[in-house]
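User: tokens in, sequence out, please.
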């Protein structure tokens, strides 16, 4: 059995595109907040999540992911409140930032990890546009305070890389990892 170690409905939707027979078991792992690089942080957190679920399902294939947003080395997590979300979006507006997803796949004693990186180019956003978007509530549980597939779509000028990575689960990379197990 394949188990997705995530409560993210976006990751569940994406995984259905390559695998229809899986279960969801949310990991309760305490995440790291610091690492040498953003990619290492994302991978370390994905491994923590996968291992936490693998303890209960040692014979299954566990998939875990952790997505972070970075700009000039600064990591943008999930916003704490309305003002925090607005501040993040102001910082990201009219700039190019990176979305990094760490993947961890565990099957028995085998563990495969990867980090996928995608550049996202935001266009200009007015204060009013940012506030209106944040008022929808959509950004409140998202790294970087936005959903590419949601209300932020009209402000994305360009993407370099895997769009599914920005949503939270890089499907091509995951498919290649699953093929190796």
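Assistant: Sequence out:
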């Amino acid at each position: 059995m394949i188990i997705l170690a995530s409560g993210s409905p976006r990751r569940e939707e994406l995984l259905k595109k390559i695998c229809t027979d899986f279960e969801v078991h949310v990991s309760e792992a305490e995440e790291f907040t610091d690492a040498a690089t953003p990619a290492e942080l994302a991978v370390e957190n994905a491994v923590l999540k996968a291992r936490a679920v693998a303890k209960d399902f040692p014979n299954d294939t566990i998939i875990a992911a952790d997505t972070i947003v970075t700009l000039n080395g600064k990591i943008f997590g999930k916003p704490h409140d309305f003002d925090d979300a607005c501040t993040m979006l102001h910082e990201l507006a009219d700039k190019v930032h990176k979305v990094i997803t760490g993947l961890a796949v565990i099957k028995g004693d085998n563990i495969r990890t990867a980090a996928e990186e995608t550049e996202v180019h935001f266009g200009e956003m007015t204060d009013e546009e940012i506030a209106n978007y944040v008022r929808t509530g959509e950004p409140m549980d998202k790294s970087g305070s936005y959903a590419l597939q949601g209300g932020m779509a009209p402000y994305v000028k360009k993407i370099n890389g895997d769009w599914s990575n920005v949503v939270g689960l890089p499907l091509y990379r995951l498919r290649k990892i699953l093929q190796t197990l």
